[in-house]
Amino acid sequence: MIRRQRWLGPAMFMPAVIYILALVGVPFVMAFLYSVSDAKVGSVSYHFVGLQNFVSILHNPAFLRALQDSFVFTITSQVLVLIGANILALSLKEAFPGRRFFRFLILLPWVAPVSIGSLGWKWILDSLYSVISWVLVRFHLVNQYDTPMWLGEPKLAMMSVILVHTWHMLPFATVILLAGLTAIPKDIPEAAAVDGAGFFRTTFQITIPMMLPIINVAVLFGAIFTFTDMTVIYILTRGGPYDTTQVIPTEAFFTGILGSDLAEGAAISIFLVPLLIIAAYIALRSAHRAEVT
Known about the structure:
By secondary structure, the protein is mostly helical.
């Protein structure tokens, strides 16, 4: 088999296929089978109920609120990530003293485990020991006895989890956009500079349009990671206060695992799969068209 060239490629590729099927395929099939059943934690029987669980969650106000919060959480964080990543990528493109050190610092939030970073942010945003509140009090921006409850008020809690998730995802998008910037031929911006184009005109009329395929890929991966991630919200707020930061992954976890309703939890977890597939297709299609043009 090794001597035959047509079998060598598939043979070397097969371990990765088996790993992906075992890690993603088997849990997905099990989640789909649970979603069309009445499975509970500890039950040994399996009864097919069709789409009953999906109809049930669509009439559940908690699920609808989690669905709305998921879109708010994802869209807002991705807009902030995209803006911040473009600024950082443009800043780190040219050589300057200490550029490698700054690149290392920017990568730290992505390299470090998100659970450790979220625990650090939980202390930073603590209602009693928040260093942010301490600074605001010292500069007389807030009252010492009426400091913000960063994780205890609905709007502040959602803002806090969005900013923490943006902090975590920003290095990933920066690296992708920085790679796209380095791939742009230098003669194009130089020719624009000779013609009198300034920084902003070159950035918005040349650099960003040429990076649209890379930007689409960064947004696609960021949206998928955000829609399916629950670590930041689970550690910081656990969906509170009053379920105002509950998203689809945490709602599925609390319903299926802590609530012992595996069937409904599985239905919640795979509800967004068709939407993510459609979004991925549209993003990749637009990226391909941008490359062609």
